[in-house]
Specification:
44 residues, DUF4023 domain-containing protein
């Protein structure tokens, strides 16, 4: 990824896209809602 050749709007769009993906992953994995998380062997 070459940030020097990106316009500001492209950069902001990429940041927002990665933040949205991060939020989807967090919700899917149950962070913030421990009762929704799958039990892991490390935390038992």
């Amino acid at each position: 990824m070459d940030f020097t050749k990106m316009s500001t709007s492209e950069f902001v769009a990429k940041i927002r896209e990665s933040q949205a993906k991060n939020l989807r992953n967090r919700q899917h994995q149950g962070y913030g809602h421990p009762e929704q998380r799958l039990p892991s062997k490390q935390r038992v």
